[in-house]
Amino acid sequence: MIEGLLRGVIHPESGENIVDGGFVDGITAGEGRITVSLRFKKTRDPFAVKLKNQVQTLLEEHYPEMKGNITVFVKEAAPARPVEELRRTTTGGIRHIVAVASGKGGVGKSTVAANLALTLRNMGYRVGLLDADIYGPSQPKMFGCEGYVPEAERIEGYDYIVPVDVKGIKLISIGFFIRPTDALLWRGAMATNALKQLIHQTLWGELDFLLIDLPPGTGDVHLSIISELKVDGAVIVSTPQQVAVADVVRGVEMFRNEKVAIPVLGIIENMAWFTPAELPDHRYYIFGHGGAAAYARSCDVPFLGEIPIIQSIMEGGESGSPAVESDSAVSGFYRQTAEKIVDKLP
């Protein structure tokens, strides 16, 4: 009975159901418990988490009385591909790669990355966006494509991931492979391996810009990006208050480290002030005034501009339509910032 149910779960890449395709390693049922183990044919299969969740949901729906006693787990597969294949990459058609980073969370980095991507698109560039915030992917929500299920395409014997084309942006995110309610309990090596697959196996095509939405802080994911890609420059997002600026210092120094040597294109001060719609001539500096700009001057880093708190920015992120699409005031701020970024690239 359970095996029959699992035949309804299809691996997106092979097109086979997981039973006949050999992905079900074992099924144990009895004493009020069901356990299913899955084994994939390649290490860090990008669809492993998605399929595990599908099996879990399917069994819970058919056996509601056993909810809480159903376990689905994934066994690691040995590397099945030669090293030469793992070195293949789809990034050869990308002209510029720009990392969008922040020293700490909560400064609006992902919102800035989304609106910058659309601004560059509006300027006539071909743009891709890699949501590399492994533990907190938010770009699917920002672009209203949380339900997207990536397809796999086999070309000349190699498997590739098809990104979603949304609002003219090629977007890929780890969020497409997990349920929004799941906690991603991955060690650093697992996270970086998943990220490497998204970098090198996504069908980016020809792009003028690939923006990378990095997780906050400095860590394994940042070092993995740096080692896997030739990043042309980094943009640091901060808010004006001193606690945020203190973390910006660490971010800037990471990119400036001689072993990293990635140019810091500049700092963006997000949430710089608040202007109520009914008082358009008033500015309220809720988080302080000019902290990021002052730091930029002191360490000889370009200051790319200020983005104020505007209600449409929040609403756009919530509704899946970033604010530059509909608010001319917001698009004006981002246009000025994007032009400075473009000017600093070769």
Share of β-strand residues: 15-25%
- How many helix segments? 11
Shape: elongated
Q: What Rg do the Cα atoms give?
A: 22 Å
Structural class assignment: alpha/beta
**End-to-end Cα distance:** 61 Å
Could you characterize what this model shows?
It is a single chain. The chain is an alpha/beta fold and 346 residues long. The protein is built from 11 helices and 13 strands. It has helices spanning 2-6, 48-62, 83-86, 109-122, 139-142, 188-201, 220-228, 242-256, 291-298, 311-319, 328-343; strands at residues 24-30, 33-39, 70-75, 94-102, 127-131, 151-155, 158-162, 164-166, 169-173, 207-213, 233-238, 264-274, 303-309. It has an 8-stranded mixed sheet, with helices on both faces. Helix 8 links the parallel strand 11 (233-238) and strand 12. Helix 6 packs parallel to helix 7 (220-228). It is elongated. Mean pLDDT is 85; it is low at 78-87.
Descriptive terms for the model:
single chain; 346 residues; 33% helix; alpha/beta; eight-stranded mixed beta sheet
Reconstruct the topology from this structure.
Blueprint: H1 2-6, E1 24-30, E2 33-39, H2 48-62, E3 70-75, H3 83-86, E4 94-102, H4 109-122, E5 127-131, H5 139-142, E6 151-155, E7 158-162, E8 164-166, E9 169-173, H6 188-201, E10 207-213, H7 220-228, E11 233-238, H8 242-256, E12 264-274, H9 291-298, E13 303-309, H10 311-319, H11 328-343
Parallel strand pairs: 2-3, 4-10, 4-11, 5-9, 5-10, 11-12, 12-13
Antiparallel strand pairs: 1-2, 6-7, 8-9
Helix pairs in contact: 4-11, 6-7
